[in-house]
Amino acid sequence: MIRAVAVLLLFQLGGEVAARGLGLPIPGPVLGLAAMFAALVLRPALRPQVEATATTILKHLSLLFVPAGVGVIAHLDTFGREGPALLAALVVSTTASILAGVYAFRLVARLTGADDA
């Protein structure tokens, strides 16, 4: 298990180093995940070494959200003061995101000719 955790952390570290060292606008863990995927495709023997540990981590992923919940509880007074502004920002940004998706979908449909059907 220690070896599997080390492998996972080394891929994440490699992704962080690549992202920061090359000034890429992609998060390091995403690059590390892509590198790990490539390593698993190129070297299938790596899969059994990390599979059990990765599955265990994914089963307990909800524990990673505990700090966020504690942060919300610790700043309830801020949410009370700024609640309407936060709610408005959430509603406006969600609506804008949905509309952007709709317009992008319609544009792609028009450009590919799928809109004619």
Helix and strand string, N-terminal first? HHHHH
* Helical residues, percent: over 70%
From the alpha carbons, calculate the radius of gyration and give it in angstroms.
21 Å
Structural class: mainly alpha
How confident overall, as mean pLDDT?
89
Low-confidence stretches: none
CA(first)-CA(last) distance: 54 Å
How many helical elements? Answer: 5
Beta-strand share of residues: under 5%
SS elements, strand count: 0
**Largest sheet report:** none
- The dominant shape is extended
Task: Summarize the structure in words.
The chain has 117 residues and is mostly helical. It has five helices and no strands. It has helices spanning 2-22, 28-42, 47-59, 66-74, 76-112. Helix 1 crosses helix 2 (28-42) and helix 1 (2-22) packs across helix 3. The longest helix has 37 residues, at 76-112. The model has no long low-confidence stretch (mean pLDDT 89).
Name the features.
5 helices; 117 residues
Break the fold down into its secondary structure elements and pairings.
Layout: H1 2-22, H2 28-42, H3 47-59, H4 66-74, H5 76-112
